[in-house]
Amino acid sequence: MKIFDYDVIIIGAGLTGERAAVAAHEDGSSVAIISLVQPRQSHSNAAQGGIQCSLDNMGEQSAGDDWKLHFDDTVRGSDWGADQDVVEQVTRAAPRLIREMEYFGCPFNRTSDGKIEQRNFGGTSVWRAAFAADFTGHALLYAIDQEVMRKGIEIFWRVQVISLILNGDRVIGCVAMDLRTGELIAFHAGSTILATGGSGKLYSESTNAIICRGDGQFLAYNTGKVPLGNMEAVQFHPTGMYPVWILLTEGCRGDGGVLRNKDHHEFMWDYASAKGNLASRDVVSRGMISEIRAGRGIEGDFGPHIWLDLTHLGRDKIISRLRDVHDIARDFAGIDVVTEMAPVKPVQHFMMGGVRIDIDCRARGVEGLYAGGECACWDMHGFNRLGGNSMLETIASGYFSGTTAAKDASGRTSGAGDLAAIHDEVKKQDEIIEELHRHDPEQNSFALHEEMAVLMTENVGIFRTGELLEAAVEQLLDIRARADRIGLTHKVRGRSLELEMALRIPYMVELALTIAQGALKRTESRGGHYREDYPARNDDEWLNRTLAYKQEGDPLPRLEYEEVVLTHLPPGDRGYGEKAPPPAKDK
Amino acid sequence: MADNKRTLKFKIYRHDPQDPSSEPHYDTFEVQDRPYLSVYLAMEEIQQKQDQSLYYDICCRSNVCGSCAVNVNGQPKLACKTQMKDLPDEVIVEPLRYFDHIKDVAVDKGRWFMEMSHRLKGWMHTDKPFNEKIENIQKEDDRIPVYEAERCIECGICIEACGAAHHDPEYLGSAGMNRAYRFIIDTRDVRALDEFAEQLFTESGVFGCEAMLGCRNFCPKEIPLPYHFGILRRRILGRILLGKK
Ligand SMILES: Cc1cc2nc3c(=O)[nH]c(=O)nc-3n(C[C@H](O)[C@H](O)[C@H](O)COP(=O)(O)OP(=O)(O)OC[C@H]3O[C@@H](n4cnc5c(N)ncnc54)[C@H](O)[C@@H]3O)c2cc1C
Ligand code: SF4
Ligand code: FES
Q: Three-state SS for A163?
């Protein structure tokens, strides 16, 4: 068996992982990146609209912007679920970190005086989102990957990490499957960083890539020691293009696009009198579903939808700033957004929850493990993330996790028993794979996945009730039980999508359970977590963060709660002029 | 058209080069047509419901990551973007031939693209230190062409579609030339044209192009590749023949 040895290993080659690698390498560590796909294919490349940083380059439109205003917007967006010390650290660092991405080569759009241009986005008080047309994630990812190449950092791609290796309370590396050969390989490291991105594929309707399956979250959860924070905090993006669920960026509305109902009425002002189309995503998504429930959606073959109208922007503006939106609508739905409205519906988009880390990105509960980006709960987003703050989080948590992990690793030496722990874990994983080969294929993991994902969309969505959530938990437990009977139709070790999925599905269901159970127990509404049976935010009882721990022999998590860190901004009104959604009558 | 009554036939290339008992062959699968069905969605249905051993690459499913390129009826295309409503009832799906074959219709493009970037030192070269107080100043008109070239998603389709690339394994190809162009025209990169001489001023560089335009016809991002080479060739000829900088 191959064992690779590094000071720092990074699982994930998106914006977070690559920024972490550059930081750790600059601190003199030996570094390797492990990824399912070659780095430039990571899902960060799909981010369209922009990245928040208070550069104040837009004259009147950004007047008075600074870290504090960005901080305030972020905390209001989070519905006071964020840790304010983390938000302060990130918003203060943002201008430097984003200018650095420009220095690395990112071709940001420019103002007339040649500075980085910024556009309007949802839930912000000024124009703050830096962007490269509507391909910002791609441009940023290529820029940071160039730095990874310059430094010659080693990359293992087409490799699926399947478990972390523990020696006592210390994470000392991971076991992975080489997807080309099927061989198991081990990585031994002083520090291990999780940067595996989102888990949108827990939902059937999601803007995420096929590879966003929550691997990093269950890798940490499976240790039984590391908690997942706020898993019930799921973001639904208002403008997933119907019915293929490819995102049309919030930048569409930032640049002047509007949402319309079947009577072409611009209804968002009825739900958020102060911000309208550009209220935070949770507010806009609820507004859209409320319109649909009131019978003012547009009927289609795949259920009702809403219109996104860009037709008043004109071809030039669309082609120069929303080129990919234009192409996506044309290629995937046959719509010309220059002259036609696009059908949209809110769909799963982002996980605010994830591997609970401290302000320096160290994972809670063990030594030697770090996390950043979408798989982590840092927690700068609380119960609703602002558009453009996620890519900022990737760059910032990449920088901080890489720096911390490298510093910590330099003080670590191989522990007694590391080698034995590595061999034990590889043997355990090998046995799991052998067991899958022995089983009759009673259950198909793709069918189980679909069952779970549809259930999550239907029962653990934008509007939640105790009844729906209880039913979800019960059905998820049933799916989890059946996941023990998965077998393989083709008994091969490598190059098998079937095996790759079979190794995940039991754990994906357990992640879904952390979401459903967390949502069931949280009897209030906050940000993206909306309980129709508890429609108000309840700061007396719920100004806290859910922590979900894996329990031995029980697929349900053990839930604990911790206080959120409040430094500057006490809980108050979010400032969107939000009216409570009407109670459901005729769903 | 998206006629829901159509029964579509997919003839898919099957071969696992690492399995000595595997022989290259085609398997045929039937899928009912439906609205919005793409080559990717059809392969997904086949893999999940008919034959779980089928292997293909998929990631973003939205024409941004470049991972899903295959040959569809002999033409290199993105499986996610290629809609069945535009295709006949019978479709042949094969892997890209140019890149390292993994299994069935999956290939690995990572090695080729990483080597290409290393050949070109495909990262920014500047003599200014980083200044956290102010970004580099660049005119929007100077940035637009950089962005236009930067939109390449490294899908490999232009390489697959290129006769010259199949003759000369050293050929940089459209994607490579486009990447060189991206740095050469970027006002922030200080490299002189001569620094690219070894890679570009050769028959495996700008003089290797046979002007067959496969790259332009198939690039899923519609990057004006021949135009980019035209500019490169003009600048390089100017340098070689006229001594221009
Ligand atoms: C369509 C879309 C548009 C968006 N637009 C914006 C926007 O405009 N602004 C904004 O701020 N945010 C946006 N976001 C959110 C943001 O892009 C993501 O949250 C962020 O890019 C995630 O980055 P990451 O580094 O955490 O993970 P990713 O970029 O997803 O990378 C994950 C990496 O982990 C690897 N990996 C996963 N599992 C394993 C495993 N088991 N073994 C080995 N490797 C593994 C993958 O190969 C990949 O390299 C958008 C998201 C989507 C889906
Ligand atoms: S230039 Fe076009 S065809 Fe070639 S790799 Fe890039 S995106 Fe693909
Ligand atoms: S899957 Fe990303 S381009 Fe097709």
A: strand
Encode A542-553: b = buried (16+ Cβ within 10 Å), e = exposed. Answer: bbebbbbbbeee
Instruction: Identify the CATH number of the domain in which residue A522 sits.
Output: 1.20.58.100
Chain B CB contacts of A495 below 8 Å: 16, 18, 55, 102-103, 106
In a domain, B208, yes or no: yes
Decide which of B107, B133, B148 is a domain's last residue.
B107
Alpha-carbon distance of A445 to A447, in angstroms, equals 5
pLDDT at B211: 84
Ligand nearest to the CA of residue B229, numbered in listed order: 2
Q: Is B224 found in the same domain as B146?
A: yes
The distance of A213 to chain B (nearest Cα, Å) reads: 11
Q: Is A439 a catalytic residue?
A: no
Whether chain A has a CB inside 8 Å of the CB on B125: the answer is no
Q: Which residues span the domain enclosing A441?
A: 420-538
Whether the pLDDT of residue B2 is over 80: the answer is no
Residue A412 annotated to the active site: no
* DSSP secondary structure code for residue A441 in this structure: -
The reply to whether A587 falls in a domain is no
ipTM of the complex: 0.97
* Nearest chain B Cα distance for residue A421, angstroms: 31
Residue from A34, A51, A110 whose CB has the most chain B CBs within 10 Å, to mutate: A110
Separation of alpha carbons A73 and A127, rounded Å = 12
Shared domain for A81 and A21, answered yes or no, is: yes
| Ligand 2 geometric centre to CA of B153 (Å) | 6
| Ligand 2 pocket test, candidate residues B162, B223, B225, B232, most atoms within 8 A of CB | B223
Q: Is the pLDDT of residue B245 over 80?
A: no
Show which of B78, B107, B136 is a domain's final residue: B107
Tokens for A71, please give them. 């901080």
- Confidence class for position B4, pLDDT limits 50, 70, 90: low
The ligand whose atoms approach the alpha carbon of B43 most closely is: 3
> In this complex, is the C-beta atom of B77 within 8 Å of any C-beta atom belonging to chain A?
no
Preceding amide of B35 cis, omega within 30: no
Containing domain of residue B92, as a range?
Answer: 7-107
In a shared domain, residues B155 and B84: no
Residues B44 and B22 in one domain: yes
Predicted confidence at residue B157, as pLDDT, reads 97
B85 within some domain: yes
Do A247 and A226 reside in the same domain of the chain? no
Q: Quick one: pLDDT band at residue B3, thresholds 50, 70, 90?
A: low
CATH number at residue B118: 1.10.1060.10
Residue A298 shares a structural domain with residue A429: no
Q: What share of chain B is helix, strand, coil (3-state, %, to 5)?
A: 35, 15, 45
Q: Would you say the pTM of this structure is higher than 0.80?
A: yes
Contact yes or no for A300/B30 (Cβ under 8 A)? no
Grouped pLDDT means (10 residues each) for chain A, 587 residues: 96 98 97 98 96 98 97 98 98 98 98 97 96 97 98 98 97 98 97 98 97 98 98 98 96 96 97 95 96 97 97 96 96 97 98 98 98 98 97 98 97 88 98 93 94 98 98 98 94 94 97 98 98 97 98 96 98 92 63
Taking the CA of residue B241 and the nearest CA in chain A, the distance in Å comes to 31
CB contact under 8 A, A146 and B117: yes
Which helix or strand (DSSP H or E) is residue A6 part of? Answer: strand A3-11
Minimum Cα–Cα distance from B123: chain A residue? A146
Question: Residues B79, B113: one domain?
Answer: no
pLDDT value at residue A1: 87
Verify that B229 and B129 share a domain, yes or no.
yes
Query: Are residues A159 and A177 in contact, defined by beta-carbon separation less than 8 angstroms?
Result: yes
Given this model, what pLDDT does residue A344 score? 98
Q: Are residues B87 and B193 in the same domain?
A: no
Say what the pLDDT of residue B1 is: 47
In a domain, B2, yes or no: no
Element (H, E) at A449: helix A445-459
Decide: B68 in ligand 3 pocket, CB within 6 A: yes
CA angle B139, B142, B143 (to 5 degrees): 90
Q: In total, how many domains does chain A have?
A: 3
> Is B18's CB within 8 Å of A115's CB?
no
B114 & B212 share domain = yes
CATH number where A261 lies: 3.90.700.10
What pLDDT does residue A586 have? 45
CB A29 within 8 Å of CB A212? no
Q: Which of B65, B132, B147 sits opposite A41 (nearest CB)?
A: B65
Contact A180 B147 (CB under 8 A): no
